[in-house]
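Contributing new records

If you add data, match the layout below exactly. Sequence lines come first and carry their own label; structure lines follow with theirs. Keep one chain per record. Anything else will be rejected by the validation script.
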Amino acid sequence: MLDFTNNEYHEETLTVPFASGVMLPGSSTSGDCHYEKGDILLHFCTREDRERVLDINWPGFGGKGLKAGLELLLPQGHESVVNVFPYENRRFFYTRKVNCLPAGGNIEYGKNYEISPNSCLGTLDWGVGVWPYRSFWIWGSASGFLPDGRTVGLNLGGGIGNDPSVNDNAIIMDGGVHKLGTVDYKYDNKDFKKPWQMASQDGRLKLEFVPFFERVAKTDLGVLSSEVHQMFGKYSGMVIAKDGEQIGIKELTGWCEEHKAKW
């Protein structure tokens, strides 16, 4: 949980040996993700690829308890960003990302947050793969509204796979995916809080990302390690749709992260 107003942040992780009791579906279009033990319930249900229902009950989370009941709708005709990234030795990563999903319901954490689809959007990130031992990626994402009421989303990435021509960079306008070319990133990996610069090689995206919060997650078990610097911030700049429309982006809230892993 991250409160953007006062930067109050809390994160907890459940370590489940051998994934005991964890249920995961084999597809992004149907099935349930489920874990329940004692008074903790984490349930993510997919209904015919049109609706996602999220139920959470975690009484001890942050000393306040976390409860959530949310519904995210995939509107008719809404497009997804889907890729298979190749690696050597038959390794791969398949991913499906869906931005700008209208979200409704409520979240309870210290107080009650009403979630309305008129002002709240969710993002689906689903993946499966067989990874190489060492991996690296950059991932940026945002979902929001333009002044004229249209939804706008960003999905930006780099570093995954061994074929530079394969990427999942895209603008998402009112549910339509506008594919982009390779995106170049300029940022300071000694100080991730400094502004990031992003530009696509096809000239259809030029953005500055200004972080306001850094989430760091590190695990180091020797042969297994992971380090993520996930920055929450604001995107500003310009993007060009596939029909040539130039769209100004002003302080669109989202995130961008750098991840290095051995697993």
